[in-house]
Structure formats: structure tokens, C-alpha cells
Design brief:
Blueprint lengths: L1 E10 L2 E5 L8 E7 L4 E4 L4 E2 L1 E4 L8 E4 L7
Antiparallel strand pairs: 1-2, 1-3, 3-6, 4-5, 4-7
Length: 71
């Protein structure tokens, strides 16, 4: 699993999440990306990439991607 520090910037027209640190008000986050053949889960959500808050980091783990038997 790749774990990148990210930042959420809130503006008048919405927000952006970026790995670029700017000199303005921000909310710390992490951008998690599953390795090849893996998925991320917190027990309820299954995904290949997600932005999360730092206090949620320990809830996420990487598991083997289930085989697709719908061929």
C-alpha cells in the first residue's frame, strides 16, 4: 500500500485535495493507494484508492483482491 500525505484546501467554490503543500489553511489527510492485485478496506468500504483523515489511518488495511468469477 502506498500512503501519501495529502492536504484538503477549502475555497469559496468547493475544495481540492492535493499532495502539494501550499502556504494557506489546510486539513491534513492521507491518500492511500492499493498495490497491484490488492484492495483497501476498513471492513465496510472496499476500494483501490481513498483519501482519509489521519485518525482513520489505523482502520485501513490492504488485502488480496478477490477473483472475479463472472466471466
Amino acid at each position: 500500500m502506498t500512503k501519501n500525505k495529502a492536504y484538503k484546501y477549502i475555497g469559496r467554490n468547493g475544495y481540492i485535495i492535493s499532495e502539494v503543500l501550499l502556504n494557506c489553511e489546510k486539513i491534513d489527510m492521507y491518500h492511500l493507494i492499493a498495490d497491484s492485485g490488492k484492495i483497501l478496506t476498513n471492513g465496510n468500504i472496499f476500494t483501490t484508492a481513498i483519501n482519509i483523515f489521519p485518525d482513520e489511518l489505523n482502520n485501513w488495511k490492504e488485502i488480496d483482491k478477490p477473483e472475479d468469477n463472472n466471466n
